[in-house]
Amino acid sequence: MQMQSVSSFDALSPSYDLIVIGGGITGAGIVHEAARSGASVLLVEQGDFASGTSSASSKLVHGGLRYLAHGQWRLTLESVRERNQLLRSRGGLVERQPFLMPVYRGAKPSLATLRAGLAVYDLMGGQWASRRVSAARALQLEPGLRSDDLLGAVVYDDAATDDARLVLRLIFEATAAGATALNYTRVNELLCADGRVCGVALQDVDSGTSREVQARVVVNAAGVESGRLAPQTAVAGAPAPALRPLRGSHLLFPLQRLPVTRAVGWLHSRDGRPIFVYPWQGVALYGTTDVDHASDDPLRLSRQEAEYLLEGLAHQFPSVRLTLDDALSSYAGVRPIVAGGKSDPSAESRESAQWSAPGYIGVTGGKLTTFRVTARQVLRAAAIQHPPLAVRAGKTFQASSSRSIARYGSAFDQWLNTDATADDRLDIAGTPYCWGELRWALLHERVKHLDDLLLRRTRLGLLLPQGGEILLPRIAGLCQEMLGWDAARREAETTGYIQLWQQRHAPVQA
Ligand code: FAD
């Protein structure tokens, strides 16, 4: 039987077994696992679900070949295993992504180094998926590659996903299993009593209404903001680790302008950092950078990052000659990295960290790929404090390999085949989406603002020129009809979305 989940602030219970703060991949993974325990679980997210770092990643579900180079063996092994598991259980949402790394005479990494690294990678993944190809074959596979001094390439397999959609699936599967998840609900304070954290002070971001909710255990999965939520009164326990927020930015180009057929990875000619480009949702996704991010830095691709990325591209694909004017969009995200004191940001560990106090567990760092591992570690720690939160063995959610079921669940497929209109079944030109996906999201996926729909329920705002401006009248009209907006709200949402897109996603700064 499907349980009825609470979807409004006013209907919240006075207390829960577990409250999770943060609706990114970490919080979503925890609530997804916790929902299986039968305990009462609440997740709260101050913005939209996945509106933090978890919609701004490189979208790779990968072991991270480069982490091997930094000696992070455990992280790589864990990630490769998780990648394989997610390919099996989330086919259609997490998909195989072939990679090619060209090798050049006299340049790093050498063929021997790469092959040794990939042999370890393959061994960890339990498959022999990597091999060497000749220079002629590499150019046949990717004709745009720089050909001078090309010795050949290695090819291997990893995986990619739609990061925001993965978060949304986990959250909606959890709510279908009885958990409660609210977006636009902020935790202003951790409540403490008798030397332990006992709940949270919540605020409905849209109405401003506040209330307190009790919990046996509170988990802080607030990403780069996790340090801001310390218990207000004295509770004994380990403090949150210092974070080193590192920004990473990406550019998206039309695939016709940067026609790659697989992921191509190489080292940037300036500093030897790994960068890559791959076909994602019909465009070429290119990144990324790794730079210190101050709290007052704008969350967008900076001019310096843009120059760095374009320089790297020109070196590896000399004939494509792309500028920022050719890009469709950009995005930037901030990695919640635990500060390790390294001078090179890219040498900082990507492992997750946990800290705790009575009634309270904090978790940060980590990767999108390893969300299940992190979730289980957190719940094991939570169960020590409150045994009903113990992780259940086995899986509860059915594996699927169709794109639409993997993204929206089987009810969507059924609806599209029975109740949807002919218009719903029409494709949105130049994208992998159909109009029905927008209507479904508006009906069932807690859309509150236009950017929720265009940047996370779908990624149309990143894939279409000018954030999909040409479609805004129709899409805002759909929102007005289905969400009950009046004309003023529709106008305000449209203007707000265009401003947000210009500030965060326009490739060229106005
Ligand atoms: P977030 O996604 O930031 O979620 C935290 C949430 O908490 C936010 O949505 C925030 O709004 C909310 N919050 C904060 N304070 C409050 C509050 N007071 N009340 C309520 N809610 C609150 N990993 C991979 O595996 N593969 C990759 O390819 C990859 N590429 C990356 C590329 C870049 C550029 C970056 C930045 C990261 C990348 N990562 C990748 C890492 C991965 O994206 C992050 O580790 C992961 O998304 C972090 O998730 P999170 O849930 O901890 O944080």
Helices and strands, with pairings:
Elements lengths: L14 E7 L3 H11 L5 E4 L15 E2 L3 H5 L3 H17 L4 E11 L6 H15 L5 E4 H7 L8 E12 L1 H14 L3 E3 L2 E9 L2 E9 L5 E11 L22 E12 L8 E5 L6 E7 L2 E5 L3 E2 L10 H14 L12 E10 L13 E6 L2 E6 L5 H15 L17 H6 L1 H9 L16 H10 L5 H8 L2 H4 L8 H12 L3 H18 L6
Helix pairs in contact: 1-6, 1-8, 11-14, 14-15
The chain binds flavin-adenine dinucleotide (FAD).
Flavin-adenine dinucleotide binds next to helix 1, strand 8 and strand 16.
Task: Characterise the protein shown here.
By secondary structure, the protein is of the alpha+beta class. The protein has helices at 25-35, 65-69, 73-89, 111-125, 135-141, 163-176, 303-316, 371-385, 403-408, 410-418, 435-444, 450-457, 460-463, 472-483, 487-504, and strands at 15-21, 41-44, 60-61, 94-104, 131-134, 150-161, 180-182, 185-193, 196-204, 210-220, 243-254, 263-267, 274-280, 283-287, 291-292, 329-338, 352-357, 360-365. Strands 3, 4, 5, 6, 11, 12, 13, 14, 15 and 16 form a ten-stranded mixed sheet that branches. Strands 1, 2, 7, 8, 9, 10, 17 and 18 form an eight-stranded mixed sheet that branches. A hairpin with a 2-residue loop joins strand 13 (274-280) and strand 14 (283-287). Helix 1 (25-35) crosses helix 8 and helix 14 crosses helix 15. The radius of gyration is 23 Å and the shape is globular. The termini are far apart. Bound molecules: flavin-adenine dinucleotide (FAD). The site of flavin-adenine dinucleotide has 38 residues, from helix 1, strand 8 and strand 16.
